[in-house]
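Help needed: design a sequence for this.
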């Protein structure tokens, strides 16, 4: 069987859709920053107390999977590389943690993925040991350094058809806008809409209140 993900060699240039392991994801809590003072001692500070000047701090850095989002021309000439974090699918969509039915997964992969712009589904296949998702809400930007061996951290590449869908989903995510399609419904129509969609985020507008 042909593998889903392709395996570029280290001599291949970086491309949009390349998958990486071990990307650095800084974990910074704005209300409890481990600030390094002039005596090189650590003080716990709130970001709002540190003014506008640059400062040194001790932070935790997680190592995560990610996919390269930068366009190929920016990979070559840009100052930075932009990645989206890849997370286990059950962390991105907790409601699907215990799903086993092929029908449920079929509906999720084909229908729900079109409706939800926040993630992009990745199947369970090497190098992944479980279903994964590209989480567009968690972006990682790193400074591009000429000569740095980024290729050594690359573990796979999306196949062409998946990469085409990924690029479309990525662009949709950044150009989307709020759209509450139920705003013109009457109160009776809205109640039917709520019943059919069962979404707790559907709220009445002022003109839909009795």
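Sure. Designed sequence:
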């Amino acid at each position: 069987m042909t593998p889903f993900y392709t395996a570029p060699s280290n001599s291949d240039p970086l491309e949009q859709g390349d998958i990486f392991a071990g990307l650095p994801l800084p974990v910074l809590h704005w209300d409890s920053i481990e600030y390094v003072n002039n005596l090189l001692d650590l003080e716990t500070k709130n970001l709002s107390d540190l003014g506008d000047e640059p400062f040194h701090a001790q932070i935790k850095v997680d190592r995560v999977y990610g996919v390269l989002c930068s366009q190929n021309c920016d990979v070559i000439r840009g100052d930075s590389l932009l990645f989206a974090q890849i997370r286990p699918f059950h962390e991105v969509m907790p409601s699907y943690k215990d799903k086993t039915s092929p029908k449920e997964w079929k509906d999720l992969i084909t229908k729900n993925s079109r409706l939800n712009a926040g993630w992009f589904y990745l199947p369970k296949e090497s190098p992944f040991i479980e279903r994964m998702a590209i989480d567009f809400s968690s972006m990682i930007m790193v400074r591009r350094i000429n000569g740095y061996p980024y290729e050594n951290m690359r573990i796979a590449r999306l196949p062409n058809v998946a990469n085409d869908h990924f690029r479309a989903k990525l662009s949709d995510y950044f150009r989307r806008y709020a759209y509450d399609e139920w705003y013109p419904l009457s109160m009776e129509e809205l109640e039917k809409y709520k019943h059919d969609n069962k979404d707790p985020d559907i709220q009445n507008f002022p003109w839909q209140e009795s």
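The radius of gyration is 22 Å.
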